[in-house]
């Protein structure tokens, strides 16, 4: 007993050290000791003792966290009885201690939610023991306010937990649990939360009382979690949140047909403090987004009427909207009015004229206060963009009034952006123009809004542009004008050029008239005249933002007015001819090319000076500064990329000019070579000189994407300086700040960008270059593996980043088409084998989880794998079983990756493997001469582990049927081969899916599968594959339609478990 007490005391001390100490070393030691405790055999019993007898909140938190890890582990899971005991213990613990520290209560509720989710399908005597969630919390709801908060938080956290997939358990298991929870419990929980909210709103709540305030907040969170549930497993990412529909099950219809649910949340908004109202608005956003098919036309009109009335009431009483969170959520709610309902439905709402007036006034006021909540403006512009785009299609007789209010919105946006310029410069604020993504998003929306009542938009733009351009010209001509005044006018002109480009681009959304083309001509003339003025000043002073706006304008003009479909008699070209003498698109294009041509830049004296004097004497950042970090030299690559592009303009085949340009780099290489040739040299200086040099060279190599210039660089660096790079890798392999730039330079040199690596037929340089590549990969790989275990927080920088570059380098050289790899084996050269074996050794040193956790590593690995399976399948087929299994497992995991590039690479690799296997199996069934028979190790492995290919068939089919498949074509290519290799398994899979459907849907699903294989032959010829891909598109659409029309009781994921 004394040992237990002493052990608990020690754990409490460690917890205090972990959470309270400021000494990093002490905290690290405490963390290490607690990790050992978590992995110890008696962790479970000690956690219970900590909860019972621990004197600090930190020890209780440790116990709850450890128990969560224990119940979550996939290997050696806890027995069912033990998990039931823990669940019951946690509930009793919370019930008897309602005043625990908030973070302890949260951790214990998280533990309950995790146990319940993972045990959802566990039975004891035919009873699903973890499903009685509402019964579990009833006793909390019938007690004090503190107990009520705990009960509601349990339901809220459980809903959230079940809705979120985790990486430690299969996605298919998550889907099964989520579907079952949705069908059995979610609606009851939502109904309970609404009833409790009604009770709360019916009482005179004292919201100054912290506990009552907390209860209301938890109830609103619970309601939101129910409405935000992923009902059909679409797993949309949050960035697309405002385009999606809430797929409420049909069984929930009663809650939405009854207007009291909607009314409840609108009433709550007006009766609770502003700090809680964002949650109410979030719930209203979800309710406003319920799928259209939940209602018939009459029901939808009634629902929309109540929704619009609620919005009108908020606009008429805007006291809470100055709060940024309220404002943001309300803007989202307004956007949903048009994304989920048609303009023809909105205009029929009784109060539509009043509501559209209030919304217009709200939008104009919001745009005028441009500095307030800028990230919310997107939703308001989205609403008006959709309204304006619907005008040509609305058939209702009721007036939409957009011709009155849309110009007001357009004017407010344009004038507010212009007025912001002076304030931003005066107060030193962040300029919105620097956020290119945000500006482009808003301009895309304005392009449609501005085209509605286009005459008014053009008249406004012409007036504002003429004023700004005249002021600008006068300031340039004046000798005593302030620079700040000219900068303000440049800023205003920048916005106007962007906006003019946007509204011209908006022409694509509307049927245009000759009059509108003439208006476009007026705007274009003004921009081109401004361009002539700014170009004449480029040598003295240019404005980068204005130049970028010009380029944006060119792009919009090109899309609309240049091309075969454009009428050459367009009034736009007539206006350009009258004012500027530009008669057709060819002449306009020549103006554009003249503007963006680098040739103008090369003629500038400052640029010529840089090309002739790129040394540390004139540019201090090119020097060797022992005070700065090696990583600070990254800017040098960008600098030399720019110089390289400028040099290429007039370089041609002039080798003397190239040699002259390379003199500073030649001197640097000779200096490094001199240092490395002696036994005693200044290592820091050598490293810094080399790192700067290879970063410079990488910039030049990146810029030289033409054969002539790149071959000059290649002949300069090979063979003279390649040994220095190899020596650097040997010496400093353990220092990533040094090796990564060297490896990246090599990866750039072997990259056949724009077919720049073209050697003469008599040249061995392609093979010699690959030998150098192989040598560098082998040298680095073998040495980096000697480092042993690297701490997790350092593993990417120290090891994985370099490995990733090696993978990218190998991929570039293998797919470059300038080396015949067959000659290596033919002449006994082991360069290819060395590179591939090093790749395997490096790969096996990386856990599967790391392959997907680090995006650059996963992209380089899966791209390399795609090349290997396409062109070096013989090497792949000769791998040891454990290596082949590792690679196949990595492909299987990559199929479900979020990164589309990774997923597509996996599909392609799998297709090559499956095609190879199918061909081998087809050959083995034919009688062939003994000399042609091969003992194919890979084929043998597949026969030993058929479940690997079956699992991938299951995964691909699951993604195509149940997920938002963004690369369907790529997924379809390996699927046919997988089916032909596993015909019996596919038949079982098909039957499982069909049988899991509701009885009335089974025939339709069976027919979908019949149509999928309709006309498909038992081969992998291109014609057969293309037919299958077409069939698959139809199959996916029909299956999705079938499941959407059901009541979402589909438990089709059973077949994937």
TrEMBL record:
Gene3D superfamilies: Leucine-rich Repeat Variant. SUPFAM superfamilies: ARM repeat. It is found in: Cytoplasm; Nucleus. Residues 30-96 form the Importin N-terminal domain. The keyword tRNA processing does not apply. One of its GO terms (molecular function) is small GTPase binding. Pfam families: IBN_N (PF03810), TPR_XPO7 (PF25795). One of its GO terms (biological process) is protein export from nucleus. InterPro entries: ARM-like, ARM-type_fold, Importin-beta_N, TPR_XPO7/RBP17, XPO4/7-like. PANTHER family: EXPORTIN 4,7-RELATED, EXPORTIN-7 ISOFORM X1. Belongs to the exportin family. This is Exportin-7. It comes from Merluccius polli.
């Amino acid at each position: 007993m004394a040992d237990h007490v002493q052990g608990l005391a020690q754990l409490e001390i460690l917890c205090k050290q972990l959470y309270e100490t400021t000494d990093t070393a002490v905290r690290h030691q405490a963390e290490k000791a607690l990790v050992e405790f978590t992995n110890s055999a008696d962790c479970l019993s000690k956690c219970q003792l900590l909860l019972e007898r621990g004197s600090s909140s930190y020890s209780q938190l440790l116990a709850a966290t450890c128990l969560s890890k224990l119940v979550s582990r996939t290997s050696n899971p806890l027995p069912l009885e033990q998990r039931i005991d823990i669940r019951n213990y946690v509930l009793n613990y919370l019930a008897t201690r309602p005043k625990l520290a908030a973070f302890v209560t949260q951790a214990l509720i998280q533990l309950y939610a995790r146990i319940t989710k993972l045990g959802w399908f566990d039975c004891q005597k035919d009873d699903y023991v973890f499903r009685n969630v509402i019964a579990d919390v009833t006793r909390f709801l019938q007690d004090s306010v503190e107990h009520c908060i705990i009960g509601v938080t349990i339901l809220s956290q459980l809903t959230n937990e079940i809705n979120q997939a985790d990486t430690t358990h299969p996605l298919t298991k998550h889907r099964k649990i989520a579907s079952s929870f949705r069908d059995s419990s979610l609606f009851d929980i939502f109904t309970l939360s609404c009833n409790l909210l009604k009770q709360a709103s019916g009482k005179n709540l004292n919201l100054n009382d912290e506990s009552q305030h907390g209860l209301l907040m938890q109830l609103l969170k619970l309601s939101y979690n129910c409405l935000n549930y992923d009902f059909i497993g679409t797993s949309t990412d949050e960035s697309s949140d405002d385009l999606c529909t809430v797929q409420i099950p049909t069984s929930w219809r009663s809650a939405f047909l009854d207007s009291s649910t909607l009314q409840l949340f609108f009433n709550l908004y007006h009766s609770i403090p502003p700090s809680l109202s964002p949650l109410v608005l979030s719930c209203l956003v979800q309710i406003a987004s319920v799928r259209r098919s939940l209602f018939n036309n009459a029901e939808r009109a009634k629902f929309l009427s109540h929704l619009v009335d609620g919005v009108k009431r908020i606009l008429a009483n805007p006291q809470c909207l100055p709060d940024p969170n309220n404002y943001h959520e309300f803007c989202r709610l307004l956007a949903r009015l048009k994304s989920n309902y048609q303009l023809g439905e909105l205009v029929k709402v009784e109060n539509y004229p009043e509501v559209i007036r209030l919304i217009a006034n709200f939008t104009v006021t919001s745009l005028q206060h441009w500095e307030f909540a800028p990230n919310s403006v997107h939703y308001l512009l989205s609403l008006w963009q959709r309204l304006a785009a619907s005008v040509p299609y609305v058939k209702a007789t009721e007036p939409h009034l957009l011709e009155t209010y849309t110009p007001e919105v357009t004017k407010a946006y344009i004038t507010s952006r212009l007025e912001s310029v002076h304030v931003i410069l005066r107060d030193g604020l962040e300029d919105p123009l620097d956020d290119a993504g945000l500006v482009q998003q808003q301009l895309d929306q304005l392009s449609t809004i501005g085209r509605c009542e286009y005459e008014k938009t053009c008249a406004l733009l012409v007036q504002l542009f003429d004023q700004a351009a005249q002021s600008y010209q006068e300031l340039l001509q004046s000798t005593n004008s302030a620079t700040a005044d000219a900068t303000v006018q440049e800023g205003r002109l920048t916005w106007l050029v962007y906006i003019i480009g946007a509204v011209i681009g908006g022409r694509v959304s509307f049927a245009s008239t000759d009059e509108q083309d003439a208006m476009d001509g007026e705007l274009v003339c003004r921009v081109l005249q401004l361009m002539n003025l700014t170009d004449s000043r480029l040598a003295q002073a240019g404005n980068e933002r204005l130049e970028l706006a010009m380029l944006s304008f060119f792009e919009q003009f090109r899309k609309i007015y240049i091309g075969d479909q454009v009428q050459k008699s367009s009034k736009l070209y007539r206006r350009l001819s009258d004012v500027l003498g530009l008669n057709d698109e060819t002449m306009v294009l020549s103006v554009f090319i003249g503007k963006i041509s680098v040739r103008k830049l090369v003629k500038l004296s400052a640029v010529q000076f840089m090309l002739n004097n790129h040394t540390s004497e004139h540019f201090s950042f090119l020097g060797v500064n022992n005070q700065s970090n090696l990583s600070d030299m990254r800017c040098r690559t960008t600098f030399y990329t720019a110089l390289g592009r400028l040099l290429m303009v007039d370089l041609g085949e002039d080798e003397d000019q190239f040699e002259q340009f390379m003199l500073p780099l030649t001197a640097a290489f000779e200096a490094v070579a001199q240092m490395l040739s002696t036994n005693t040299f200044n290592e820091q200086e050598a490293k810094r000189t080399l790192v700067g040099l290879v970063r410079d060279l990488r910039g030049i190599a990146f810029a030289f994407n033409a054969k002539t210039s790149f071959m000059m660089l290649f002949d300069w660096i090979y063979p003279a300086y390649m040994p220095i790079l190899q020596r650097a890798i040997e010496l400093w392999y353990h220092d990533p700040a040094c090796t990564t730039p060297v490896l990246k330079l090599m990866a750039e040199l072997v990259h056949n960008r724009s077919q720049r690596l073209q050697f003469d037929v008599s040249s061995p340089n392609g093979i010699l270059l690959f030998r150098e590549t192989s040598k560098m990969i082998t040298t680095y790989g073998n040495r980096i593996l000697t480092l042993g275990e690297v701490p997790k927080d350092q593993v990417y920088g120290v090891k994985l980043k370099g490995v990733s570059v090696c993978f990218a380098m190998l991929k570039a050289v293998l797919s470059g088409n300038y080396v015949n790899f067959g000659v290596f084996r033919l002449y006994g050269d082991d360069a290819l084998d060395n590179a591939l074996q090093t790749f395997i050794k490096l790969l096996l040193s990386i856990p599967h989880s790391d392959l997907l956790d680090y995006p650059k590593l996963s992209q380089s690995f899966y791209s390399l794998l795609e090349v290997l399976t396409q062109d070096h399948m013989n090497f792949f087929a000769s791998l040891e079983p454990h290596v082949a299994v590792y690679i196949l497992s990595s492909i299987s995991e990559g199929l479900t990756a979020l990164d589309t590039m990774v997923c597509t690479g996996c599909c392609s690799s799998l297709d090559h493997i499956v095609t190879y296997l199918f061909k081998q199996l087809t050959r083995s069934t034919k009688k062939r001469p003994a000399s042609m028979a091969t003992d194919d190790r890979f084929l043998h492995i597949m026969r030993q582990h058929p479940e690997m290919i079956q699992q991938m068939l299951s995964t691909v089919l699951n993604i195509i049927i149940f997920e938002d498949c963004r690369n369907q074509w790529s997924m379809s290519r390996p699927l046919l081969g997988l089916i032909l290799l596993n015909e019996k398994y596919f038949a079982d899979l098909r039957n499982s899916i069909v049988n899991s459907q509701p009885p009335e849907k089974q025939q339709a699903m069976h027919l979908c599968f019949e149509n999928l294989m309709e006309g498909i032959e038992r081969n992998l010829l291109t014609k057969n594959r293309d037919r299958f891909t077409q069939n698959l598109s139809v199959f996916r659409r029909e299956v999705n339609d079938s499941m959407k029309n059901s009541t979402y009781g589909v438990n089709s994921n059973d077949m994937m478990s």
